[in-house]
Amino acid sequence: MYAIQIHAHEPDNLRYEAIDTPQPGPGEVLIRNQAAGVNPIDWKTCSGGGASGFIEAFPFIPGWEFSGVVEALGEGVSGYKPGDAVLGFVRFPHPAGCYAEQLCVPANQITLRPEGLDATTAAGLGLAGLTAWQSLFDKGQLQAGESVLILAGAGGVGHLAVQLAALKGAQVSATCSATNRDYLTSLGCHQVIDYRDLDMGTLASQFDLILDGVGGDTAIDALITLKPGGRMVTLPSVTAAQVSSAAEGSDIEVMTIRVEPNATQLGKLARLCANGQLKLKVAQVLPLQDAAQAHKLSASGHISGKLILQTG
Predict the structure, then answer these.
(1) Do residues 10 and 198 touch, judged by C-beta distance below 8 A?
(2) Which of 157, 192, 234, 268 has a C-alpha 20 to 30 A away from that of 175?
(3) In this protein, which residues make up the domain named Enoyl reductase (ER) (predicted)?
(4) Which residues contact 116 (CB under 8 A, 6 or more apart)?
């Protein structure tokens, strides 16, 4: 089988290489992979920056989300059989090795892929979808009828969060560029705000919850838009402490989050996608051997939608 590996933090470090096929251990299933999602955490990890701590040893195979078919079951696994179509967001933040033609994954972190959900879309749903879900509902405790502001509403997490919040029955506002106004409106956003003309003072005390996909000064400036007792979930870890410090002494709460694998939640997201209630925007699909190009595209910040590596 073939996989993308890095052997060190160095320029052009992604290599398409032949490696041994893994064997499933107890509680694992062997997957014949069809597609893997590409996320900013992937290129940040491989580049040797602050996220490189996710690498426990070299060689390292990137990727935490996939869609594929069950090939074999490890000891003690039930509920799946060879030939089942599945998807998963697995092992995070420990290495998962999804940029590969085959991989072994924990059976309790995958879910069946429903009819009507193609492998490409399924592969890109895990990290962004679970981040949106856990931020809104587990951390943010968003309720029907509440008002939520999503900063970076057209982003990978943001466009899913807009839809999930609208499905919950919340009043959804989001920031984006003017070119994405109609797109976010079509996803269920009630108020679309051009971030380039944004005056936070005009939105003072309007929102019960903020989902912050921007961080830094933008997130700090947005705190004024929360109602008394309101809460913010901030995603960018690099500025999380700064944003939390800015809220100290007030009656608002700032929470951070690290997304966790959750097969039950992922199954719900997959079913919403399969029946058309949730739409994942896929920007481009590339072959596995073009992973380096996918990382460059992701790092450029100019991709609107999900990048997917086709593995089989």
Answers:
(1) no
(2) 268
(3) 9-309
(4) 274, 275
- Tell me the per-residue pLDDT of 193-209, one tens digit each, with 9 for 90 and over: 999 888 888 999 999 99
With a CB cutoff of 8 Å and minimum separation 6, the contacts of 270 are: 87, 111, 112, 113, 114, 117, 122, 125
3-state secondary structure of 205: coil
Residue 298 has pLDDT above 80, yes or no: yes
Helical segments of the chain, H only: 40-47, 119-123, 126-133, 158-168, 181-186, 216-222, 240-246, 263-274, 291-300
Instruction: Tell me: pLDDT of 11 over 80.
Output: no
This model's pTM is above 0.70: yes
For residues 27, 125, 120 and 302, what is the CA-based torsion angle, rounded to 10 degrees?
A: -140
For the chain, residues classed under CATH 3.90.180.10 are: 2-125+280-310
CATH superfamily to which 2-125+280-310 belongs: Medium-chain alcohol dehydrogenases, catalytic domain (3.90.180.10)
CA distance 81 to 71: 8
CB 9 within 8 A of CB 35: no
Q: What is the mean pLDDT of the segment spanning 86-96?
A: 97
Return the SS3 of 312.
Answer: coil
Residues of the chain with CATH 3.40.50.720: 128-256
β-pairing, 226-234 vs 207-212, is parallel
Q: Which CATH architecture has domain 128-256?
A: 3-Layer(aba) Sandwich (3.40)
Give the phi and the psi of residue 230 in degrees, each rounded to 5.
-75, 170
